[in-house]
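User: Please predict the structure of the protein below. I'd like the answer in structure-token form so I can feed it into my own downstream comparison script.

Assistant: Understood. Taking the following sequence of 546 residues as input:
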Amino acid sequence: MPYHQKELIDNSSLNPFMNLPVSQALLATVFENTPSFMGVYNVNTHEFEFINQTGLNMLCVTDLEDFKKVFPHGFRKDKLSIKEHSEIAEHLMNNKVWSEEIIFENRVKDEFWGNLQISLFQDLGIPHYFVRITDISSRKKTEQQVRDEENRFEALFMHAAIGIIMVNREGKIVLSNHFADVLFGYQRGELMGNQLDILIPQNIKEQHQKTYQSYTQKPQDRAMGVGLDLNGRRKDGSLFPVEISLSHFKSGDTPYYISFINDTTFKKKAETDLLNKNSEIKKLNDSLEKEVVNRTNALVETLKSLERSKLELEIALNKEKELGELKSRFVSMASHEFRTPLTAIQSAASLIEKYPKTEEQDKRERHTQRIKAAVGNLTDILEEFLSVGKLEEGKIETKMSAFDLPELMQECIIDLTSITRKGQKINYQHSGDSIVKLDKSLLRKIIINLCSNALKFSTENSTIDVITDFQMDSLVLKVSDKGIGISAEDQKHLFDRFFRGANVTNIQGTGLGLHIVARYAELLNGKVTVESELNVGTTFTVTIKS
């Protein structure tokens, strides 16, 4: 038995039944097996002398000493002032018992509602409080939910800016909101208990009763008055136009029917006024149009012709200018880019001739591989030039099909092994759905281009991270490297044709790859963004809405 509990049990002044044979067991049962916090508080020392295990658990403390360290000033959320302490003490002196419902906090600052009961007793002439706290959080939560529901009902029903009337199967009004009372000229609550017929024009009461009986037999939510002129009857007998929608529900086995009523007096007047105005305006327009049409047709046609000519001329000049620039840059780039692989081919071919012996096959194969790599480089350059040409001419069309994205990515990784440098590897991760519906060829070219760039501008023994995520018809492709990076200034022009960064002039390339990637992404209803820092690395993100 814990020390703090044994000390209390051995104090016979706290328990008038201590002389009974079962007194200690009874006291232990009352204090330790109760689901409530139970403690003894010394009024003179202002400290708890005992707290049962339930109370310790409730406050997330291990024992009484731990409690004193964690809660030196109590565990009420709202601390008591000196005046409030005095009021409670005075009340206990007069009434012996204090009770209230307040919020407490445990060790980890979790709040809970508790029913606090304090009783005053004397032990060897020293005043003590017997403190009991019952957790009532569940009840408080339920009460709050009920209040919230009542407030929502009050806001939605009683204060709605539309008339709402609820009737039972017999057509008796059981509930009406304030808007409906005012709408029909009744005092609040005056409609309760009356038949719905009092709100119906006299000449259609019989017809309405038949319609109502039919509706109660097969109720359904529906709007009324579409194409019809419906009227409501006020208390003074006057009629006014209304629009009515119906709904229904059951409370247990009892059906109820709800009418949502809108006064359309102003709407009807506005419609009539609008029709009259429209008629007048139409007559004026017809007259003016006849006068204006003949005088403006020739001028309009002339202006259209001039505008078309101007636009066509601007388009032609811009295309001509772009074409000339493209041809000039193409010749310059081609002469430069073709020279390097052609020189490598020529050099390797010459060196092969110097190794005619069979045992020199490995040397011949090394130069053969150089020739193959150079030819592949030439092929890639030509492919980029051809792709730009097709894009400019608008000859590339998307062909959508469903395919397995991770499977395509693995194929691309295999194709990239031929350009992977020593120790380089591609780390691929996918999340979301695997099957996407896109142009597989264009997506493949985007992947190959971004990954080959990442490998080209990264050092040996580096890792390229590729991530794909397909969620809710949105595909995100990320290719990250830890290579040389791109300056902030160069990032502004990164997707322009023939643009190359200032720090890659010594690395072979046409400056067309990222331009092609951006254009392919546009064809797939997507976009490309870049995040980069010099000598830290680069991340390209392609976002596509499929």
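That's the full token string. The two ends are 69 Å apart (CA to CA).
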